[in-house]
Design goal:
By secondary structure, the protein is mainly α. The chain has helices spanning about 10-20, 25-30, 35-50, 55-65, 70-80, 85-110, 120-130, 135-150. Its main location: cytoplasm.
Length: about 160
């Protein structure tokens, strides 16, 4: 015997129970199952009132899931696709900028762990880090710091 189709609210709560969603993302996922756009908006308003849906929690979740592996530029690019408010985007950018160097250093250590020994290796490390969304200045500081440490322990002698 086939199951009856899920109600729109049950579908939304199911999505939200798996992970946080932005309002825009949840609207996009529910739209094919709704009779009208107004029905989706009414449901989203109710979910926000009942505190099931929160863009602030979504931002925290996004930072938790992405910030340890990606730079501010990459996380911000993803956040903008979720149509967050300007104030939320500014707060997110400030949070990411404050921890950018520490996060980038950890990503670099996990991937490379030692300073580049050739110009080609240096270019490869820079490309990798920039593709992850870290700024050129942060990548430069990490590599310069790694190379300076290498000089102190006698690696270049």
């Amino acid at each position: 015997m086939p199951r009856p189709p899920l109600s729109l609210k049950a579908r939304a709560v199911g999505y939200l129970s798996r992970r946080e969603h932005s309002r825009a993302e949840l609207a996009r996922k529910l739209a094919p199952h709704a009779e009208s756009a107004e029905q989706v908006e009414t449901l989203l308003d109710a979910l926000e009132r009942e505190n099931w849906l929160s863009n602030d929690r979504f931002v925290d979740s996004l930072v938790h899931r992405r910030a340890s592996r990606y730079g501010a530029a990459r996380v911000m690019q993803e956040a903008k696709t979720h149509q967050l408010g300007g104030e939320q985007l500014r707060d997110l950018q400030d949070r990411l900028r404050d921890t950018e160097l520490e996060r980038a250093t950890e990503v670099w250590r996990k991937r490379f762990g030692s300073p580049p020994d050739t110009p080609e290796a240096r270019a490869k490390q820079i490309r990798f880090m920039m593709a992850r969304g870290f700024s050129r200045s942060v990548v430069g500081r990490i590599l310069k710091g790694a190379e300076d440490e290498g000089e102190f322990d006698g690696a270049d002698e």
